[in-house]
Sequence to fold (377 residues):
Amino acid sequence: MMKCLLLGLLCLALTEGLVRVPLVKKKTIMKERGLLKEMLKYAQYSSQQGYFESLINQNDMAYFGKVGIGTPPQYFYLHFDTGSSTLWVNSVYCNSDACNSHPLFNPSQSSTFTSNQQPFSIKYGTGSVQGFLGNDTVTIGQLTVTNQQIGLSTSEPGDHFARPLHDGLMGLAFRPPTYQTIVDNMIQEGVIEEPIFAFYLSRDSESGSEVVFGGVDPSHYEGQINWVPVQQNSHWQLVFEGFEVNHQSTGWCDSGCTAITDTGTSLLLCPPQYVDSLHQMLGAQQDSNGNYVFDCNAVSSLPPLTFVMNGAHLHLPGTAYVLQDEDSNSNCQSGIRASHEEYRNGYPYWILGDVFLRQFYSVFDQGNARVGFANLA
Fold:
């Protein structure tokens, strides 16, 4: 009894002061905005101290949390994205169709907003946004950052940003200080004790996803955190030394492969020179649209994929790399696609998106330029 009590008190001490940002279910937003029927038509594929925020899980394809901008706060659901640097939000100055179905930030209603009208423009793998920069107070759960640079959208061409439920992006990339991500400002303003944040991403649209700022939540993982160095001033880009299928080396990464660790990418992106061979090794078939699919009834027997990172063997079972939505032929789509580059810095180039990250508790340590992966509890 005493041992259990001590363990309970230890866990309480480890998590006290963490800021949690919930990543919540998409139906919560749809009901809140009266969009449930309409949005069901869409699916998007493409330390020990800290603060927690829950996140919304949109069909295992995107994770976002509620953020307040301005004084008094105007609230928006932002996509928390380790693959980009800028925090931007849909604004009243945006006339694109993509802005019509989202709440819009109005700087005239914030007493703390300032701007010199400096323009910004970002092109993502899918979609783009243009606008101008300003500064304002940002509230995330219990955290307040008082002078955060914010992009206000004026144009969002196409429908990429119309379909998702989120109202903008929060860039969390590991970049030079001139970019001043919100984590940089949290560190600079002293609102978190450790320069660390961590993600737990639920699967199958379940609740409970969250990002923690200022530390980690030991209740979400077991065993040790396996640390991998990342390059300074990169989008959490690492080099790993091996890739295996069914515990057999492919040889593709024997001289090293590189990858960015990207919560803003839904899938696992494989170097394009290997993507067909990988699916053949896994026994996938192509459907009439050329997409790789698996028999949904056989997913649990598929061979595991193994990433060898800094000596650790990180395994992805078939249930992790196959998407669980079943079509009329009892097929489930592969969660693996081709990345947009064969090589980066001379290494075969991967993107470790949500398909990979859901399998682990993922820790982003800016202070020591490393990412960590731990088995889920």
In short: Residues 219-376 form a domain with the Cathepsin D, subunit A; domain 1 fold (CATH 2.40.70.10).
